[in-house]
Amino acid sequence: MAAKGSATAKSRDDIRDRIIDTALRLIAEKKWAETKVEDVIREAGVSEADFYAEFDGLLSVVIAASRRVNAAMMDAKAEFDPDDSPRDKLFALIMARFDAAEPWRKAIGELNRAAPRDPVLAAAAGQMLTQTAALALEAAGIDTRGPLGFARTNAFMVGVLWPAARAWIRDDTPDRSKTMAELDRCLARAEMLANWFGPLAGANGEATAEAATKEEPGSRSDGTASPAGGVS
Asked: pTM of the entire structure?
């Protein structure tokens, strides 16, 4: 029974991966607005029951794809050196995510173009980008709790992750040198302007209790809106 259960789980994982890969390929080929669930079911060679056992619709497939590359990003933690700075860690994490998403780069570019015309996609894109930013910061040892952490997450998303993702989508170099240069530039600017790597962060990136609850005069605790179309 255990072996049968394991085989069934593997089969479900295979079906899920096939649906994700097929959906992203069709989005790249047909455009977001023209890609339908029926197309994905047919091209993936799965049944309607198989599809809806895993996903609610096409948008949930895109969200699952984002989670898949986030998982690959988190795997990069295993390569961290004890002497790596938070900036070094963030560079490695984001580049690992881009590497994992490389087969879907054209589809992600299409999703970014489509999002401003699709409010539901745009809202989901903002949530996905926020989640990625928070995961990357935490993996690098930078606290994202409380108002200060929320501000860090939004600043990292807008000032680093989003411009680096745009550079990656447009990068025509075989070694992704333009992407790396833009990511390094954004991280250098963030390191200079923000407190992520300064006195508000301890050796392990945790903010002090006082810093985590303190806001600058006139600051807002609700943060800023995510860039529209920030799918990456």
From this structure: 0.80
Closest by Cα among 122, 111, 151, 113 to 232: 111
* Phi, psi (rounded to 5 degrees) for 75: -65, -25
Rounded Cα gap, residues 139 and 63, in angstroms: 20
Domains of the chain with bracketed CATH: 1-55 (1.10.10), 78-232 (no CATH)
pLDDT digits (tens, 9 = 90+) for 70-121: 999 999 999 999 999 999 999 999 999 999 999 999 999 999 999 999 999 9
Burial class (CB in 10 A: 0-12, 13-18, 19+), 112: buried
Q: What does the pLDDT look like over 189-208, one tens digit per residue? A: 988 876 544 433 433 444 33
How far is the CA of 26 from the CAs of 41, 101, 193, in angstroms?
Answer: 11, 15, 41
Query: How many Cα atoms are found within 13 Å in the side-chain-facing hemisphere of 186?
Result: 22
Q: Which residue, 101, 118, 40, is CA-closest to 67? A: 101
Q: What's the first-to-final CA gap in the chain, in angstroms?
A: 40
User: Do residues 12 and 54 make contact, with C-beta atoms less than 8 angstroms apart?
Assistant: yes
